[in-house]
Amino acid sequence: MEVYKDIYHLVRPYWKRVAVAAVASVLISGLNGSLAWLVKPIMDDIFVKKDTFLLQFIPFLVIAIFFIKGILLTINGYLIKSVNQKMVTRLRNRLFAHILDMPVGYFGKSSSGELISKVINDTNLLNELVSTTLKDLLVESTTAVALISVALWRRWDIALISIIALPGAFYAIGRLGKRIRQISRRSQEKISHITEFLHENFTGIKIVKAFNRQELERERFEKITQEFYRENMRATRIGETSTLLMESVGGVGIAFVMWYGGTLVISNAMTVGDFFSFMTAIFLMYSPVRRLARVSINIQQARAPFERVNALLHEKPEADGTEELGPDIGEIDFKGVSFTYPSASHKALDNLNLRVSKGEIIAIVGKSGGGKSTLVNLLPRFYKPTEGMIVINGIDIGRLSFKSLRGIFGIVSQEVVLFNDTILANIAFGKPGADREEIVRAAEAAYAHDFILEFPQGYDTVIGEKGTRISGGQRQRLSIARAILKNPPVLILDEATSSLDTASEMMVQRALENLMSSRTTFVIAHRLSTIKKADRIIVLEKGKIAESGTHRELYEHGGLYKKLYDLQFSGQSL
Fold it and tell me: Do 288 and 367 belong together in one domain?
């Protein structure tokens, strides 16, 4: 019943279409019943009594019945499929919107392949199953009722005997359905593995080829698809067993009707017309009853994707705040901030206190794992502090709306995220509605304008997934242009030049200097030039601030910073 409730909630917004389809189903059922009803006058009045009027009238009536039935079936099928498509589209939109609202930490425990599978594969399976279930419930159930009614009218005693085995058959099919549910759940997990595997291999194709892994990856993929095939075949075997069961029950029922009904006709207790009308109703009835039996199997198959989708929808999204920041962004204050990742045994940040003035450039250095990226990821609330708070303009950022908070930050990271769209669209990503002149000025400030014009389509060039059609330095400058266009009061530069060659670094560094002008900036430093120009350098060690000061002050102090500096930048002047 839970699945029926889920289906009801999904189709409820489109109840008018379902209602029209239901009316069409009732009419279709009546027409199916009328065909069985007409067998009696055909047999008794035309073949036995030789009624010529009925001989001329009934064929036209049959043509009209089939024509009207065809129109009704078309209307019914169209409406059911339109409801189903609308339902699945709405569900996919809802899933995508919900996933976007999940905290960043959620994506660490759920792979992108698994999430894609839920949005595409699970909803697609629901598309097929719900469509079949809705149609069968509306059309086949009413048809079965109409035909059983004809059979009962003709000979109620034989009709009851002929259908007496059906409840037992449905019970057995229900038992089979429980097994189908388990298999369907495993099958959906397998298709998730396939989606995840494909995503990883396609996005990491360079590594696959560099290590000559093609053959091994083919073998792994074949193993996964073979497991998926086996699960599907288990479900198929059980599904076809239900067909065998219904056919056997139908065969027994019809055989009994033929024997007993024939006996009644021979003894003149039943007319030939009554017998054949009854037989027609019974013959026609078993087809919709068989399809209704499949509904039970379909419902059990639908439970697995419903459970997966519902589990995702019940995951708690990020808790948004309600307060808004004013236009002037002043002091940013870390007050006793600690943070521990869910799977970690130690704190990434430990009781960190840091006050940053408006317009100040803060460089953050330290060994790998010292907490540098964690610190800047807490600012836009990608993660929430385990202890303490971060205050902007005197307001705890936990009370701020995401739109207001994240609107003040421009982020340029080592891992540039670009989309399979035009250069124009990628630069304008952070400022929808920006005009072309604004975008060009941002590209010029990022020293990207010249290389953009070298492409035949210029700003309308599609750069491929993750910007694979352009170089690393070009990708980085587009990322900077995107941040310049947004014009944020606070910048986060997460090792923005660490993976570039010297020539590209010089261009990107000049662009960064344009970007950093008159803005509060947090720089996770890797290159010397950025460190030297910082107003203050924070040295993190094991999640704590070990040292703080200017480049010269820290170097002359001779502590951890000097060791890091000498290790990374030996041979360069102060």
Answer: no
What are the pLDDT digits (tens) for 231-264?
Answer: 878 877 776 776 676 667 666 766 777 777 777 7
Tally of domains within the chain: 2
Task: Find which of 136-145, 277-286, 309-318 is predicted with most confidence, using mean pLDDT.
Answer: 309-318
Same domain for 305 and 449? no
Listed in sequence order, the residues at least 6 apart from 167 whose beta carbon sits closer than 8 Å to its beta carbon are none
Q: Are 410 and 515 in contact (CB under 8 A)?
A: yes
User: How far apart, in whole angstroms, are the C-alpha atoms of residue 382 and residue 8?
Assistant: 36
Beta strands of 340-467 (E only): which ranges?
349-356, 361-366, 387-392, 395-396, 409-413
Distances (CA, A) of 110 to 132, 183, 312, 342, 381: 31, 22, 10, 14, 19
> How far is it, in rounded angstroms, from Cα 484 to Cα 497?
16
Any domain includes 389:
no
Q: Tell me whether residue 18 is in a domain.
A: yes
Lowest mean pLDDT among 153-167, 246-260, 268-282, 542-556: 153-167
- Closest listed residue to residue 478, CA positions, set 419, 530, 528: 419
Residue after which a domain boundary falls, among 298, 313, 328: 313
